[in-house]
Amino acid sequence: MTASTSSGRLTDRERADGESLPSYLAPLPTTVEDLGLRFAWLVVAINLVGTAFGFWYYSGQFAETTATLWPWVPDSPLATLFIALALACWKLGREQPWLTALAFFGNIVLGLWTPYTLLAFADSYTYLSPAMYNFLFWSHLAMVVQALVLYRISDFPVWAVAVAASWYWSNLLVDYFVPVVGEPHHTIIPVARDAAMFFEADALGVIAAGEVSFVLLALFLALTIRVKKCEAARSRS
Asked: Is residue 11 within 8 Å of residue 54, measured between CB atoms?
């Protein structure tokens, strides 16, 4: 079982039908997957621009956070940087499973968490222009789309999934549960952490529940992709 290389040969859907994944793991049309990989350098460039914008967007939070915890501040920019680097490595013929796994987790988790947060606190995000609100919402959902192509370039070995899971669990701990230095360091939200929300939860509980759920979803998807690929390899042997 091998992932694709930078030679232009695509994987999975262009290989034996028996290696294709079920639709809940690979829901995108094959054409979309093919375009994403064929124009991978363009995707890399777009994500690098998004990373630069994201670091600018987080500049205020950097200023308020001790330098020790800076690696845990720019959640979305790191996710787009991970996928830019992962695709670049693949195109250069040196796919790094741990980097691809980090990109998969990051783009699933932050690609879902940000729209979730924008919807949960929609009444409080009125300070954002409609253009910026929609840009943040749809650009983050696009992160999920690009994450769903990564199974084409990696087999998600368990050790690589463990690396990604460890990083994003550490992010959960620092953001919500064990801040290490000072207070929790989650992305700034437009209401007080103890503001009452739905189901008797406070604001911190709402955003924490979302991120925990999405990290578990990413873990489930990555490991299930691994299992399905191994099953397909055994059926062909």
From this structure: no
Q: Which run of H or of E encompasses 6?
A: none
- Burial class of residue 75 in the structure, from the number of CB atoms within 10 Å of its CB (0-12 exposed, 13-18 middle, 19+ buried): buried
Instruction: List all residues 6 or more positions away from 192 whose beta carbon is below 8 Å from its beta carbon.
Output: 203
CA gap 221, 138 in Å, rounded? 22
Closest to 219 in 3D by CA, of 163, 149, 139: 163
pLDDT in tens, 101-136: 999 999 999 999 999 999 999 999 999 999 999 999
Rg of the chain in Å (alpha carbons): 18
Sequence spans of domains, the chain: 27-236
Q: Which tens digits make up the pLDDT trace of 133-171? A: 999 999 999 999 999 999 999 999 999 999 999 999 999
